[in-house]
Amino acid sequence: MTVPETSKLLDEELYSRQLYVLDLPAMQKIQGAKVLLSGLQGLGAEVAKNLVLMGVGSLTLHDPYPTCWSDLAAQFFLSEQDLERSRAEASQEPVAKLNRAVQVCIHTGDITEELLLDFQVVVLTTSKLEEQLKVGALCHKLGVCFLVADTRGLVGQLFCDFGEDFTVQDPTEAEPLTAAIQHISQGSPGILTLKTEAHNFYDGGLVTFSGIEGMVELNGCDPRPIHLQEDGTLEIGDTANFSCYLSGGTVTEVKRPKTVSHKPLDVALLQPHVVAQSSQEVHRARCLHQAFRALHQFQHLNGRLPQPWDPVDAEMVVGLARSLEPLKGTGGEPLEESLDEALVRTVALSSAGGLSPMAALLGAVAAQEVLKAISRKFMPLDQWLYFDALDCLPEDGEHLPKPEDCAPRHCRYDGQIAVLGAGFQEKLSRQHYFLVGAGAIGCELLKGFALVGLGAGASGRVTVADMDYIERSNLSRQFLFRTEDIGRPKAEVAAEAAHRLNSDLQVIPLTYPLDPTTEHIYDNNFFSHVDGVAAALDSFQARHYVAARCTHYLKPLLEAGTEGTSGHASVFMPWVTETYRASASAIDSENATYPVCTLRHFPSTVEHTVQWARDEFEGLFHLSAETINRHQQAPTSLAEPDGLKVLTVLQEVLGVLRERPQTWKDCVVWALGHWQLCFHNGIMQLLNRFPPNKVLEDGTLFWSGSKQCPQPLEFDASQDTHLLYVLAAANLYAQMHGLPGSRDQTALRELLKSLRLPVTQHLAPIFPYDLELARASAEFVPSPDMDLDLLGPPEGACWAARKDPEVAAGPSPGTI
């Protein structure tokens, strides 16, 4: 079934991080998709939350059953006031508040074939097997992508059926491979030699070409298959009748769509394809598969789930699992595998409750599979995924929960008590945890803390620290924030939202950073009252610092992070586990450095532009102010050597800043000038030095391969990207100078109409990112493969102050 395109404009600011992982066409498909979600207990709430934040076109909720106490352990859209109300009805408005651009509806009747025709994806959570089989068969027949997600205590399952002929347009998350060409021979086959010996092109892949001089027949050609040779060269097919290769060019991988075939649920129940990394994991997953089948059969026979930690019910489940029809292999042959009865018994004993962390994990994966179904990006699951956290139970059987300890208390923790017992719940309530970071993962952790009751007792609490403020781009993934919270401190808003989820939770927000400058705040007394630390940080430097503090104070550390569609979570116990250590590849990725000229003039990857933006921010809004503030206590006598040095530094900085702004208009004028400097004047200077038709000594074009010739932009306030750049820059500039900012885009457009673009020679250059380096005149760093003689003295903006003594001198020193 084809996903309808949406006519709505995409809010690129809101979905900026999501667009980085996907692309615009995929986001447009998501924005036009219709999803049916049946089952609104904890797992269903997680799926609903993720899909609405993701920005699906419409989400229809289906769950006619009444809210009960056990739901509140994981269902964060519901509260005590919703008891006995339909879960779907009570959840509709809280779900809709997450993203008003998503239409959230309710379906109160049965799920019929006629109803399913209106959806691209259907998700069933915590449903009976009979309903799964009925709806799954209809979806398979109609070509509707179908998912089943379920959790039973500490075990969860996910099933995907995207049909027998589902085409994945972009199977991998990686960027297409690209490489510079050294030579291409004329022949059958032609041999392509790359400039680098190490590459990841593979035999049988498809490639296309661009920027080639001479053998121009290859430029923009249809994708060509390649064959990898032992020496690393590539056969690219017949080039015998092509023009002779001269120079330059880039070869780029063409991603090939892949078609997957999924079996319907009734077949997949007996012939399960499970996602696992080893034969041992496969066997465990198949045993969990049988345990779920036995639990469904128990529920069908008894009209209920097994009682919490009831040995009689558990033995009945084991017996049912033993009597099930054996599983079969892909060829239909019975699998000769023994049933792990101890595993099935443990699953049955702890299956009556629902846990927020299990719902969060399975709900996230299920929503990601929905995203794959809609966008047709990335390979879907094939077809069953099983996850268990049974190692959370005590290894000593004597300390396992007893039936009387797990009986319902008619409280919000009943679902959790049914799995872990009332004694464990009491221990959780007394904990004091320190959460560092209230971003996407931090919000999820705080939500989880509220639902499980961590620190919700009289002597417990949670402290959350985050110095950042909420931005619009946060709203698509940071669950605790809403539009009206933009501009407020993350820690304070997150604390208030968590308290609303559980009024017993004691949350203390702190807006101080956790770094060496605040060790008088996060001191011995602070850490002595902390039972553990959870880190949800976005830099390895910050993670290392927090990990070091945990080691120093002997506190356990829970650390997690995400990148694209991947994520990780780790637990570190001082002197028990290894200490925190980021992977070498992760550190290299974060600390990767690029030649300055590449960042400013020849960017060819997303990483280049991101690094350029980080450098811009650092230079404009941090280093300049930091430099002046560092030298505020300058010597009174300029005759002293240090005094002259300070004056020189201040003059350099203030020469860049020109003069201190006094009003919001001054900040806008500065931001407009900076836009003009970066995206018009700077490019004109670059093209004066390297015109579009510049030819190097070897006869190759300078602008070829990864060096794409830029074009100067003309400022247009009607263009959102132009306007938002000036708005962001002016606000940052105002904040740095202690002036009030503005978020009114309409007013800014009117103001810009009255402003004239600054004259080129009157523009202040941007701040040199490293003063010492700038004074040493080594700011412009050529790339290794560039002819240094061709470059000559750079004409970049950060050199303007040094070349123009009047600009460099600037006004007399002052204070920021």
Key features?
alpha/beta, Elongation Factor Tu (Ef-tu), domain 3, Rossmann fold, 28 helices, globular, disordered N terminus
The coarse overall form would be: globular
Number of strands: 22
Instruction: Summarize the biggest pleated sheet.
Output: 7 strands, mixed
| Mean of pLDDT | 83
Secondary structure category: alpha/beta
- Lateral strand order in the biggest sheet: 3-2-1-4-5-6-16
Q: Note poorly predicted spans.
A: 1-7, 583-590, 632-657, 760-816
Count of domain modules: 4
Q: Note the gap between the termini.
A: 60 Å
The CATH C-level name of the largest domain is Alpha Beta
Under CATH, the topology of the largest domain can be stated as Rossmann fold
What do you see in this structure?
With 816 residues, the chain is of the alpha/beta class. The strands form four sheets. It has a seven-stranded mixed β-sheet, sandwiched between helices. The longest helix has 26 residues. The N terminus and C terminus are likely disordered.
Summarize the structure.
It is built from 28 helices and 22 strands.
Ordered list of secondary-structure elements with their pairings:
Blueprint: H1 16-21, H2 24-31, E1 34-38, H3 42-54, E2 58-62, H4 87-97, E3 103-106, H5 113-116, E4 121-125, H6 129-142, E5 145-152, E6 155-161, E7 166-168, E8 178-184, E9 191-194, E10 206-210, E11 224-225, E12 227-228, E13 234-235, E14 250-254, E15 258-260, H7 265-268, H8 279-302, H9 311-322, H10 341-349, H11 356-375, E16 384-388, H12 414-420, H13 422-429, E17 432-436, H14 440-452, E18 461-465, H15 490-501, E19 507-510, H16 524-528, E20 532-535, H17 540-553, E21 557-563, E22 566-572, H18 584-591, H19 596-601, H20 606-630, H21 641-657, H22 664-689, H23 720-736, H24 745-753, H25 771-775, H26 788-791, H27 800-803, H28 805-809
Parallel strand pairs: 1-2, 1-4, 2-3, 4-5, 17-18, 17-20, 18-19, 20-21
Antiparallel strand pairs: 5-6, 6-16, 7-15, 8-9, 8-14, 9-13, 10-11, 10-14, 12-13, 21-22
Helix pairs in contact: 3-11, 8-9, 8-10, 9-10, 12-13, 14-15, 22-23
